[in-house]
Amino acid sequence: GVSSIEFIPTILEFSFNYVFNEGTNMIFEGNVVQFTNFAIHCINLMKRILSNNAYSFSGKITTSTDISQATKAKMDFFTPERINYICEKIITHYFLLTQSELDAWDEDPESYASDEGGDSWKYELKPCTETFFVTLFNQFREHVIPEVVRYVQKAQVTTLTEDSDLKDILLKDAIYNAAGLGAYNLFGEVDFDQWFTSQLLDELKIKNNNFRIIRKRVIWLIGQLTGVKFAQSLRPQVYAACLELLKPEEDISIRLTASKTLMSTMDDFEFNPEAFLEFLEPSFFLLFSLLKEARECETKMNVLNIMSFIVDKMSNNIYTQMNNLIEYLPLLWEESVDHNMLRCAIISTLLQIVKALCDIPAKLAPFLYPVISISTNLKDPSHVYLMEEGLELWLSVIENSSTMTPELMQLCDNVLPIIELSSENLRTVLYIIQSYLLLSPQIYLERHGTNVVNVCASLLSDMRPEGICMIMKLFEAFLCAKPEFAIELLKPVLPDVFKNIIENKEYSLVMTMYLSIMARVLLINQGVFSEILQTIQQPQALANILDIWITKLPLVAQTDKKKLLSLALTSLITAQNDAIFERFGYIILKICETLNDIMKDDDDTGILTDSLVFSETMDFDNNSEMWPLATNVEFEYKTHHYERCRQLAMEDPVHKIALKDYLQCQIIALKNQIGNERYQNLMMSIDPSVLSNLTDFIDIGVTIQATS
Prior knowledge:
One of its GO terms (biological process) is protein import into nucleus. By secondary structure, the chain is mostly helical.
């Protein structure tokens, strides 16, 4: 078959002729395109040929010969003269606003402002020509740049006044459109700062009716320029200009454009919050008025998104504005009863506020709790849309609360139904439970502990390893936060944990979690440990568990877990049990291996110390090894939750007890229990190299035979 590549010259000639050249008189009447769809199709064909390297209109794979043939056809057609001619036609013809566009603006300024973006280039002439122009610009920069600069210079020397003709206004609008679309390619040729101060700012001040065209275009253009190259020192003047155009007496279409420029000008990695402080209050006031006036849900969401963005950008300075925002949001929530997407955006804004303040403002609390309740209550139909954002907000509210409140406690009723319904939000819900646990361990576990354990236990049978790990981490957090109380709560699930260890079928991360739970039980209460061993009614249960424990310990990757398992092993040294004496050498070997891992030279003293023991002043990083908890918190915010985590970690045996010291105590206790003679024999049964390693850390009171 004939390759479509052979048709490229024909397609280009045909499209060019009708859209830009002699043939235009066939599709235009006066200045208006009569065959719009035909024109759009031709322009999009040209754009596709321009931007495509694999010229396959049929879907067949193209060869490198095809590609070079296509590239040649493209270069042959787009000569410098032709490129200049096309640019001229686009700017002086296609970019001019038409009467029907101006009528649409008059009729519905709000939707006129939002008709930009998306896939509109496929079926609307203006966006279609704009994307073609950008493609042409990017492909032939060296030809298009001088052409556009020529037009910009022409516009720079044309001063418009109140009495300027509509024709001149439309041409300037078109030139500014071209400059904004090509801003990335122009910053080396045009001094944006100079242009802004000497011309653009003044053009925003002219108020007669046709000048709304220029005001809307100029504030859009400034947004394009600030995203490319623009002096920090001039940005406050841009903020001021945006606020001027956000005033209620201005056309809503212009206000919406100004709000977008405000956001894009702030969206800069060198953004300086101090420079924006004086604009913070007025921007909230004006954006909120705009939001209330907007009719369409999408417009409201866009404006709220900008407000939320400002909260985020100004997070450290937002305190002063909080009261205004706190007054706006409940009103908006009431207004948005039929717009779930807008409510999602409100919840996200609340999340930004709570994170920015690291606290729950008294004024906001009465609004926060009902919002969380509605969005996470399965009985409320809107939970379908609001659940995910609602859970994030809920988690953040607990993390930033300093005490448990009755309202927070009441929200707990929403927790379990969510994970009983589906595992979709399991992770966040488990974090929520854990955050409650840290906020008020005794109250939370007394009231909800049993139900949480029952529901989680019922979920375990159908879970993938990742889910099992998450639930075990939660159970481990229970054991850390309220050890004696949690052991009683967890009694129903512990026999299964022990059985799973003995069966030894689990994948390593899950196995590590089972072993960790078992180790914590042993460290908290040896009596309960023995009781569970009896319950599972397996002969040699302890011996089997020890063998797996000894085998698995070297495979545990996290050093904190390794230490936990070694502390628990150390606690068994004095348990007076044959299963332990028979494996004594292995037990000591494993504890030594852990000591070799965790003992590090102290930076200040050079003495070998247990690197996992925390000092009071220690700050934690995001390193998961530091935490006995499952955590999703990137600790950029020093929340109340962070402090609670830190306190809990301080109390954790892993971070409180030096393994070396505990081992020393246990070895002395063992010697006192069994007498020196039996003790010496027991020690001599250990491999001499292990004994020698052991004496690096503790005093064993045994003379080691030199190994020959």
